[in-house]
Structure formats: C-alpha cells, structure tokens
Amino acid sequence: MNGWASLQRFFAVERVDEGCAETFAALDRYAERVLAGDAELRFPGVAAHLRACAVCAEDLRGLLELMGGTT
Amino acid sequence: MRTVDQADWVVELARGAADREQAMTRLHEVLLRAARKEAGRRGPRLGIGGPELDDLAAEAAGDALLAILGKLDQFRGESRFLTWAYKFVVLEVAHKTTRHAWRRTAPLWEEDAWRALPDRFGFSPSEVVERREVLVELRRGVQELTAHQRRVFEAIVLHGVPLDVLVEQLDSSRGAVYKTLFDARRKLRARLVANGYMDDLGAYGS
Fold it and tell me: Taking the CB of the first residue and of the last residue of chain A, which one, N or C, has fewer CB atoms within 10 A?
C-alpha cells in the first residue's frame, strides 16, 4: 500500500465501527470465532473497528497467540 | 498442576469459596506465563527487554488478576474462561509496555511533526510533491477542528503518541479518545471530499 492509499484508508471511517470499549468487551468471543472462521460475519462492527484501530488489532493478535500457545 | 475447566474457575474464584486463595494463586501463575509471553512479543519492537520487561509483565499479571476478580460476575461463559481472562492480560501488558516505552521518546516540534506526517503514512518523495495540496488542505482542516479534537488528532497522528499514553494524559478511556479521533477523521474526510481531494466511498460515513 502506498502513502496516499494509506492516508485514504486512515480517513475511511466506517459507520458500523463499534469503538474500543465494545470491541474489548467482545474480544474473547471474537477471537474464538476467528479460529472458527466466521468472526467478521458474526461481529461486523468489531471487525470494522479492528480494521481501523491498530491498538485493538494488536490486542487481538496477542490474544490469538496466547490462545494458540497456552490454552 | 491439575487442570480445571471454566466452571471450576468461576466457582473456585467466587467470594467466600473455600479454595479461593489456591485458585487465585493458580490463576496468577497462568496469567504470569501469559503476560511474559505477550510482553516478549511486544517488548523488542518497543526497545524493552530483560528484567525491565519481566517487571512490567509481573505488574501486568497482578493487575489483570485484580481486573478479573473484579469482573468475575460479568463472565457469562460465552467464551472459554481463559480466553476471557487472557484479554485482560493483553490489555495490561499493552498499557504498561506502551507507556513505559513512550517515556523515552523525545517530543517533536509542531513544524517538524507536520513535515514528518507524509513519512508516517509511507509517502514516497514523489507522492509528497504530487499530494502537496492535500496535505496543506488537511492542515487547514485540522485548525478548524474543535480544540479537543485537534489535541487528540495532533497527539496521535502528528506526534505519534500511543493511544494508551494519551488516554493516561487525558485521564480518559480508550473508547472516548478513539471516538474523538473517529469524529475528527470523519470531519476531515468530509472536507477533503467536498474540496475534491479525496473520492467519496459509498460504504463509508461522511
């Protein structure tokens, strides 16, 4: 992705974006659905938020690693 | 260590349970392992390692345990107990490592921050020339945000202040700061679209 595309992506706010608080509340359920393969379908607002918020997306990556390695 | 299923965790951690202390000790051990793993994943990128990182992981595990005990009645069994518990570890490690690393970061002056903005988005030198007017328009737009939106936008986008650090500085929450940034992005996008600098994408809000 070039710089212009990256800037456009940053400003492409999605109406269904659930925000950080709702995403954190659902993060455990979302992560389990990621492993099941239907997270975006079941939680479209959380998926939209994770596309826009690098901080919450990083939390999801950490959670998935912990689930894969230690559960 | 014996294994316990999620029903056991909830029962054994409940206030007044006979085995509560032992369950808390066992859970703390699990959380500490998880915190060390998560800290190990984040630490190198943030330039933190060794005993310093281990201390942050230990603090994160302790705070995650307190958060879990305080919210135990909110656990509905809609995920595995440890999946639910791990998210508090991840959050605490994220807060602690990010805030710790930011203390060593030197702030940029405003002009330098604007000059560095194209780099933050990965602009090539030719893109900087080609999109110069957009960047000027963006700067004008930022001046017209509300004072609070401008402060949040400039901190996160221009100065690269991590969200969790700004949350602490403003004594706010991730959700509230993100919403402010979301509104600022929406307002700036509408301006760039209205002035013909950016295409309006039907799927997105304006």
Answer: N
Whole-prediction pTM: 0.84
Q: Which residues of A touch B86 (CB under 8 A)?
A: 28, 63, 66-67, 71
User: Range of A26's domain?
Assistant: 3-70
- For chain B, give the secondary structure using H, E and C: CCCCCHHHHHHHHCCCCCCHHHHHHHHHHHHHHHHHHHHHHHHHHHCCCHHHHHHHHHHHHHHHHHHHHHCHHHCCCCCCHHHHHHHHHHHHHHHHHHHHHHCCCCCCCHHHHHHHHHHHCCCCHHHHHHCHHHHHHHHHHHHCCCHHHHHHHHHHHHCCCCHHHHHHHCCCCHHHHHHHHHHHHHHHHHHHHHCCCCCCCCCCCC
Closest CB to B186 among A8, A13, A24: A13
Fold of B110-194: Arc Repressor Mutant, subunit A (1.10.10)
- How many distinct structural domains can be found in chain A? 1
ipTM of the complex as predicted: 0.89
Q: pLDDT digits over B111-129, tens only?
A: 888 888 998 899 999 999 9
CATH architecture, range B6-102:
Orthogonal Bundle (1.10)
Q: What is the structure's pLDDT at A71?
A: 35
Residue B203 contacts A, CB cutoff 8 Å: yes
In this prediction, residue B19 carries a pLDDT of 87
| pLDDT score for B205 | 39
